[in-house]
Amino acid sequence: MSGRTPWPLLPFVAVVYLGLLAPLVVVIAVSFGPSAAFAFPPTGLTLRWFEAFFNSKPFVTSFFRVSLVVGLLAAVLATTLGTAAAIGLVRFRFTGREAFETFFLMPLLVPEILVGAALYLFYARLAIHASVLTLLWSHLIICTPYVIRSVTAGLVGMDPRLEEAAKSLGATPLQAFFKVTFPLLRSSLLSGAIFAFIISFSDINLALFLSGPESTSLPVHLFSQIQWEGDPTIAAASSLQIVIIGALILLVQRIFRLRLMV
Amino acid sequence: MPAGVELDVRGLTKRYSSQVSVGPISFEVREGEFFSLLGPSGCGKTTTLRCIAGFETLSAGSISLRGVRLDDRPPHRRDVGLVFQNYALFPHLDVFDNVAFGLRLRRVPTVQTRERVGRMLELVGLPEMAGRFPSQLSGGQQQRIAIARSLVLEPRILMFDEPLSNLDFKLRIQMRDELRRLQRRLGKTSIYVTHDQTEALALSDRIVVLSHGKIEQIGTPAEIYERPATAFVADFIGSSNLLQARIVERNERGTVIETQGGLRLYCAGGAVDSAGGDISVLLRPERIRVAVAGPAEEGEPNRFPARIAEITYLGEDLHLNLELAGGQSLRAALKNSIAAAGLAPAQQVHIVVDPDDIRLLHT
Amino acid sequence: MRGSGQRMGPPQPSSAPSLTLPRFRGREGWGRRPLWAILVGPYALYLLVLLIVPFANVALFSVHAYSPTKVVLPELTFANYLKIFDPYYARLFGRTLRLGLVTTAICAVLGYPLAYFLARARPRVLALGLFLLIMPLMVSTVIRVFGWIVILGRKGMVNQALVAVGLEPVKLLYTETAVVIGLVNIFMPFMVLPLMASIERIPPSLEEAAQNLGASWPQMFLRTIMPLSLPGLISGCLLVYSVSISAFVTPALMGSPRERMVGQQIYDEVLVSFNWPSAASLAITLVLFTLLLLFAALRVTRRAGRLEIRQ
Q1: What are phi and psi of B125, to 5 degrees?
Q2: Smallest Cβ distance to C209: which of B84, B105, B142?
Q3: Which of A233, A244, B243, B352 sits a CA distance of 20 to 30 A from A105?
Q4: Sheet order of strands, B60-65 included
């Protein structure tokens, strides 16, 4: 750092980080503890809550058959939709392009709880029942903007002269795109897809309105379990989610070598 | 402490890792002098400057200002002004507020502040810019405001971190001359960091040449240029012919050396002892006289035939690549003149070197 | 210098809602116009059908009358919006706006040093710091709130510690304090990231210049860093405020049911009492207010570019 920063800075920052991470640390710790009363620090080490998790049909269904499936499919679909949109926005000029840009980012600006409510009322009017499918295509709304942003950043940051060089060597525009640009976009695509998955996997605000008997996502099930004061199986399920998402974020950081930026 | 010493740097050492370090470096800066730290990137000149300013802590050594220890003070309590390479003007303040910044911190009364700022702006020639913002100023103007901002606080020492490197060529010369005029007029002790040896030669009263974190030589511009102490200094300052040679003979009139290219030169200086007689020889290109081939005149100890291999036309100057017998090649620099204009590649000429113009150095 | 704007590699994707796409400055595109429609069309259509239309539907609901038996009556009325001025709703909004303000203020105070630390950190430290900041953001809100419930509950960590020392257990959960703690915890990154980006654009040489001119570190921070990072602070505040006032999960699980925030009210009226017109009017009000805040933040961020000196 330049000059000399005051000595209280580092401890202060450490305390703030501690506060930010405390809930996650506590959850993981409790999930390994034997006490059903969420005692912290845990008095022993046990896997019983993880066993309970895998033995609990609602938990397993919500985790594997709803959240995971919807997350993966949402990632794939959002990447397809978002990449196409990003290419269209960046590589073409047409009237109203800025308007489209803002429009595509709208889902990020509207409070998620309201998106959920609006969709619920919409489906109610059309008499569409809640299912895994409705959850999937509803998630696409909030997932795709992340892909668009990621791919747009990748495209803009790319040197356009690379494609020009390819064309000067005889490639058609389409060939230049697929042989030069697309491979370079791989990391943007991948990180966009991972973000899309994460957003879908952890979403609660939309899922609360869109869950039905067969389509309860993991966060929604956790929500009701917390309300009904369940046992540390909640912690076990949460720990699993934390680890998965933590690993994915680490992966994205690795892909981009340097950092996740605003 | 001898009178007239403003800054005393003793054994300054900064260790970054076990391999990378600067120092120990020791030098004195005298009152009112313009003192330059000169060297290539990575030589430690900027580190030394930042140590004096307080933005780096010393691993060892001391820095004293008029006998008072400086290096145990935080950067905001040292009486040294620093003009940054990118000027570091505050973009959210106008020129007046920028210059007044330090005065306001010291709670100087408003009337005095206004007067001092006004005087300083006049001094740097920009009184009408007081209300403008830095983004509205040109590079040269920004630099002058940066100087004004530091000067208005009347520091003991004013330091410059490569201030001219962001300017284009003509502007750089102009600002350089202005800087020198300003410094001479104010008599302010100044420390100047640069990698540009022309700048250092033009501005300084004394120069310290640094390389790889160590001092190569301290001296006046003339000393550094005419009598470089090491091969590095010889090569870094000005252009040069730096030849490897061995001592053949030494007598009371001078030394005879023979280069690896087979050239035998009589040198007036002889004060270099070297076991085995291997030395470096420095020959400045502009000290080589080029004469038309003709009968030798007596009393010219170093006259050799040579062939012009290539001529580089630089407008004011001509640079000649010369080939001598035995495979020795030399560069000569001539001023563009009618006589010089007549030279052509492949032409046979004679070159003459005065024994006083040859420097002998340790390798 | 990190602050001088040189960054290696392509710009990176955002994880918090940054409000602008990176600018594509007028290079030659492919020009074949119909192709863009095929690329951009699908998602545009998608958003139209699944975002615009539903919200239009909500707006429609909001101007209809409510009936407990048929839910919606085919008569148009503005009564739902006027209801907002009733004591119950007025208190609701007042509480929501107030808690949002408190959350924002705390985030600003705690987040500023954090943002400065990250802005001036070495790359490795920065990578770790960002990871620890963003990772919790991506984990479901439910889980983070659950952690706080364990910490703050009647038999939770804090109370267990108090009892162990011989003190009485304190009621921490289901209070406004708990809600604020939760909101600050969840939304802190929304303050830190824009602030950090803003501070990064300030060259470290400015800090050194200020110190060289005699400013101690606090003086330097107040006179140099703060004025120049004001755009980041403002957009951070607006961001945190707009997500705080529309929060649902945190107040629902950590707050008292009698002291609700707007999000909880909307949820309740949609899924429990089926008073859709009322819920719709609340939703429209909230959306408009939020959009206003976020567009203001956008303006501030865009104008921030003007403060940087050409060098």
Answers
A1: 80, 25
A2: B84
A3: A244
A4: B21-30, B5-15, B60-65, B68-69
Q: Which residues of C touch B (CB under 8 A)?
A: 4, 203, 205-206, 208-217, 219-220, 223-224, 227-228, 307-311
Domains B5-234 and B241-361 belong to one CATH topology? no
Look over chain C and give the mean of its residue pLDDT values, rounded to a whole number: 83
In chain B, what residues touch A3 (CB-CB under 8 Å)?
54-55, 75
Which residue from C237, C294, C239, C234 is spatially nearest to C15, judged by alpha carbons?
C239
Residue A118 and residue C36: Cβ atoms within 8 Å?
no
Interface test with C, best of A49, A114, A125 (most C CBs within 10 A): A114
Distance from the Cα of C87 to chain A's closest Cα (Å) equals 23
Q: Looking at the domain that runs over B241-361, which CATH code has it been given?
A: 2.40.50.140
Q: Which residue of C has its CA nearest to A176?
A: C30
Q: What is the CATH number of the domain that holds C81?
A: 1.10.3720.10
Question: Which chains have at least 3 CB atom pairs separated by less than 8 Å from chain B?
Answer: A, C
| Number of CB pairs, chain A paired with chain B, less than 8 A apart | 8
pLDDT in tens, A143-195: 999 999 889 888 888 887 887 888 888 888 788 778 888 888 888 888 899 99
For the stretch B215-266, pLDDT in tens is 999 999 999 998 888 888 988 988 888 888 888 877 777 788 888 877 888 8
Calculate how close chain A gets to B55, using CA atoms only, in Å.
5
For residue C310, the chain B residue with the least C-alpha distance is: B135
With left for phi above 0 and alpha for psi between -120 and 50, is residue C241 left, alpha or beta? alpha
**Cross-strand partners of B245:** B259, B279
Domains and their CATH numbers in chain A: 1-46 (no CATH), 57-255 (1.10.3720.10)
The pLDDT tens digits of the residues spanning B135-146 come to 999 988 999 999
Please give the ipTM for the structure prediction. Answer: 0.86
Which residue out of C14, C33, C48, C139 would a mutagenesis test of the A interface target, given it has the greatest number of A Cβ atoms within 10 Å?
C139
Mean pLDDT of A211-219: 88
Residue B309 backbone dihedrals phi, psi, to 5 degrees: -85, -40
Query: Shortest Cα distance from A198 to chain C (angstroms)?
Result: 7
Give me Rg for the CA atoms of chain B: 25
Structure tokens at B11: 């054994």
Class of domain B5-234: alpha beta
- Closest by CA to A115, choosing from A42, A25, A194, A210, is A210
